[in-house]
Amino acid sequence: MAGEAITSETAERRFIRRAMRAPLLASEHEQDLARRWRDAADENALHELTGAYMRLVVAMAGKFRAYGLPMADLVQEGAVGLMQAAARFEPERGVRFSTYAGWWVRAAMQDFVLRNWSIVRTGTTASGKSLFFNLRRLRARLGDMDGRLSPEARAKIAVELGVDEDDVEAMAARISAGDRSLNAPVAAGAEDAYQDFLPDEAPTPDVEVEARLDGLSRQSALVEALKVLNPRELAIIQARRLTDEPRTLESLGEDLGVSKERVRQVEHAALAKLRQAIIRRHGDPVEAGLIG
What we know:
- The protein is mainly α.
- It is 67% helix and 0% strand.
- It folds into three domains: 11-117, Four Helix Bundle (Hemerythrin (Met), subunit A), CATH 1.20.120; 121-178, no CATH class; 205-282, Winged helix-like DNA-binding domain superfamily/Winged helix DNA-binding domain (Arc Repressor Mutant, subunit A), CATH 1.10.10.10.
- It has helices at 2-21, 27-40, 43-52, 54-63, 71-88, 97-116, 126-142, 151-161, 165-177, 205-226, 231-241, 249-256, 260-282.
């Protein structure tokens, strides 16, 4: 294993030295290579173009090493970004390929860092991504690197990055905390794990059974009470009270050939009849939990 590690490090150093020694391209030659790759799928042109700017990938990977990820992996992700840049580059715009490719290389590395820095995905929004990659720099500039972020520093960072102060505080806590297993003990020698203190917000079995039985009781009482309504009253109650999308008084009136005011009167009378039917069988429907 030690021999493999040495071999890997040696290969990495050789790759970096080769990338840094690659000759720079003149603007005209760079444009020609980009056109040959885009128009004729000339792989030799692609290799020369990307090989010349692999130094850009290596240099940018060095800036991201502070996040604790292997240099080789960062270079690999940056190379993917470089290939994406080559596929989308438009030489007619008169922009140097290095300028255009820099954005793609940086974006590829940033996405790799966010995917691998923690088990929990961090920086899933544009503001979160900006916070993640700029918070340490801004804290260092403000001289506020020790402990919890001060209110003054939090406010200044929020203004500079255009984010909420609560988001700044949450990201600062997230970066400083690191990953922690829920199975780990809460303290050295303790038998309790962190997961033992997580509250279970699901209803207990007795609450579930009680709710189910109450629901069945209410349903049975309602079905029995509906029998006191005539067909028109039943149709109106079902359309107005027993559906997820209640119909309007006007639309029901058109179907029944009456005014919407008459529909309202029938509905009111039908509800009164239902209440009386429930009272005769179960007492006060509010106290019985049948009518809110």
